[in-house]
Amino acid sequence: MKFEITPSLESYKELIKFCCSSRKVQLALDIVNQISQGSLNLSIDMLNCILHAIEENHECNLVRQIYSVFCCHSLKPNAETFRRMISLSVKMKDFGGAYAMLNDSRKMNVKPVAGMYNAIMAGYFREKISAGLRVLKQMELDSVKPDPQTYSYLIGYCDREEDIIKYYEELKCSGITVTKHIFMSLINAYAACGQFEKAKQVLLDEGIPVKSLNELRSALVSSLASNGQMADALDTYEEIKQSGGDLEPRAVLSLMECLHSERDLNLMLQLLEELHDQGYWIEGCCRVISFCVRKKHLRLADKKFFIIWDSIYAA
User: Fold this and answer.
1) In a domain, 282, yes or no
2) What Å distances lie between residue 148 and 41, 143, 227, 276, 283, CA to CA?
3) pLDDT per residue over 191-216, tens digit each?
4) Among residues 241, 314, 251, 240, which one has the least CA distance to residue 283?
5) Domain named PROP1-like PPR: which ranges (predicted)?
């Protein structure tokens, strides 16, 4: 991109914002490179705007380019910016690059925070890599205290009941507040270990805020269904309905995914009616279509397909 008259810094900022909102992230980076070749100074705000667009558009591969800009122009990211760049590197499974950024943060005198380590830990756990626990050890060596998110990951990926108890006790002894996500991790971990009654008992904890109860009940429905306990999952679903609550959209989709019997069609359609957001509703329709094709309900599958098509076209 060439300009006959050099724009002001404010004009560049507005142009970068426009590119980012238009999903033209690479073009925004090209503009940054052009600024760097002139007499104007780059600002952290410009790069944070681009970084946000990279996250929104899932263009993780561009994180190396933006990090290079930080390094080449002696711009000092703050801890949150480092965390976001580390997280993007992890999403590409570039754990080496993520650790390099973590080390660079120290060289730039940016104090590492738990969120940076959490991003790497979560990535390792998602890949079923035991190195996730080594991240915890590294935090101890670097004198970085775990936060609620750290324990949420540690508990959520436990595959033994004794480990769940161990980390939960550590959490309580540390004085860290038990958050909604930690309760969710307890539910998921106990269900994954086959301790379904203990997963249900998590909901009896007096520390659960009333406003989080419906979301946690939905998490229980999802975990029970995903671990083969459909009868219990449906019972909990009915309890939610009878208490005037609604199943969270992701739990609805999870429940739909686990319905396989011929007699489940009516329930599948009932669950679909609970999805009001268009994105979730389309995803639910796709599950209904898949179910109908498997069960040879081709006329209904055809009908749902055209409803989806009309919905997308109208949008």
Assistant:
1) yes
2) 38, 16, 25, 31, 31
3) 999 999 999 999 999 999 999 999 99
4) 251
5) 11-153
